[in-house]
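task queued by scheduler; priority normal; single chain, no ligands, no partner chains; default sampling; output format set to structure tokens
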Amino acid sequence: MADGELSDAIRRFIRDRVHSVEQLEVLLLLAGSAPQEWDAARVSQKLYTQPESAATRLADLHTHGLLTTGSAPGLYRYAAPTPAMDEVVRGLGVAYKERKDAVIREIFSRPLDNLRTFADAFRIRRED
């Protein structure tokens, strides 16, 4: 992997499971403090975001199988479904610290790809 580039595994993970920088930061916060449990209010206070937004990100990550519910309703903790997935999340954390711009570019390139695919579906093509 060249300096500044992300591994294919990290790129795939971002494409498949990360929809925003805020979601990534929530994931990395919980992964970095495992097995500690977090609720939306605490996450929002730590990351300087709105509690409603933090609650949405926590629910998304839970749906993607990266968080498990905690000891009480509204509490979550990091729990990657496999050791390989945990390794990718840990690698993503390192990449975000060392090459934040590359990670952010990858997150924001994803919607463009989806939008381009959607637009191409409506492209009028000439028949020969």
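post-processing summary
- Strands lie at 67-69, 76-78.
- The radius of gyration is 17 Å.
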